[in-house]
Amino acid sequence: MSTGNTNLTVAEISKEFGIPESVIANAIQSHELEVVESTSEGAKISDNAKLKEWVANHHPARIYAALSGTAEVPNDERMQLLANLPFLARQLVNADYAALTLSNQDGRIVDMIVSGMSESQSKPIGHPPTGRGVLGNLDHSEAPIRLGNISSHQRSTGFPEGHPDMESMIGVGVTSDKNQDKTIRIYVTRSSGQPSFTAEEQVLIESLATFAKQALEFDTLRKAETNLRIRAEDAEKAKSEFMSMINHDLKNPLAAMQVALDMAKFTDHYPVEDLFVDLQSSLTVQRTLIDSLLDMARIGKTEQDYEFENEYPIDLMNEVVNRQRKSSLANNRTIKSNIDENLPAVRCDPIQMGRVFDNLISNALKYSESDVTVSVTKATNRSFISFVIADGGQGIPNSEIDRIFEPFERITDSNKPIEGLGLGLAICKTIVEAHDGTITYQRTEGRNGKSVFEVKLPITE
């Protein structure tokens, strides 16, 4: 799946992942997926983590098969490790076939790796087991299973047309992979007329499963250690960048004040009024920077940190828009307001959400020459109110979009100097998420393209 701030149509998702359009439509209807845009091509869904998770749980099961050796699987370290197990198990007990299954939390097999069968042989079989038969029995139990005749088991539902003839079987649980929300099982089978598996052979498969479990746990620990090391390195880098920025941005006003004092000391014609103006300007800049740091440190992260009220969007946004229209940034500029007067209330802290919208509108005024448009409507899924602030500025470079809500991130590609410490949008994101809402940015293309920030807040129940 592609990454970034892209939207996919229902047809595109269906084609890329083999999920029927009717299934996707049902997910939209039940609010499992959220439509972010309606176009002539149909509804569009944001290509984000939520969509990836949904696809992982609903795409048709993938079957990777190899007649001999190891099946070709996606270039993922964990899958590469697992792909070796069926072939090893088959060799270990001289089985005709072996398979490893990965099931999701609902017990549905999402991946199956087969040894002893080619890709062309596996295709006529269709989908892998659905969990209702013998394999389903193993999926709901940690105990191994050994059968002399699969068909004799009380839960046996038979084999689909085109399935190879199989009689005896050993099935063993490898591990419940909590980090991946997947349950892993391994099976070996023999065809009719072959000797049944023995207890000793079952022990061999159990030993292989134990080895695989330890290898997976080691892989998990290794990845955790790598992630911690990367986070530590990133933290050290962020600390260094932060100290450099503080050193630069907080010292600049001090330097300006020193220059003003020196000029007053050594220049006979430096008016006292100018001295006070210069000092006041520098102090204001420094106070603003320090206030931003303090805000980031003390801003509430959870509901308990806010004073929630049922607030109507028309009241909330009119107050913000009127306040921004009176600011110096709005001189010779127009803030257009398009707010549905009949929208239901949202549950929010009006002071803190006012800060969010003040920040977004003032940024639009500060970093673009165009008019600013504020629109408030019901979101597509009808359970959220959508607050949109748009301007016709040059927008944020694609390479920086993913980082704009991170603390201390400032746009590097801009025609205007970027003020402050880069905390405004990070503070906005913290406030919005504490309200169970979302804040996103996208740039619409074309001659009249716009920079668009959208905040969604849940409607009061």
UniProtKB/TrEMBL annotation:
Look at the named UniProt entry and state the broad enzyme category this protein falls under.
Answer: transferase
Q: Keyword set for this entry?
A: Kinase, Phosphoprotein, Transferase, Two-component regulatory system
Q: Which residues form the Histidine kinase domain?
A: 245-461
> Is this entry keyworded Plastid?
no
GO MF terms listed in the record are: phosphorelay sensor kinase activity
Give a single Pfam family match.
Answer: HisKA
User: What reaction is this protein's catalytic activity?
Assistant: ATP + protein L-histidine = ADP + protein N-phospho-L-histidine
The EC number(s) given in the record are: 2.7.13.3
Give the matching InterPro entries. GAF, GAF-like_dom_sf, HATPase_C_sf, HATPase_dom, His_kinase_dom, HisK_dim/P_dom, HisK_dim/P_sf, Sensor_HK_Regulatory
Protein name according to UniProt: histidine kinase
Q: What species was this sequence derived from? A: Candidatus Lucifugimonas marina
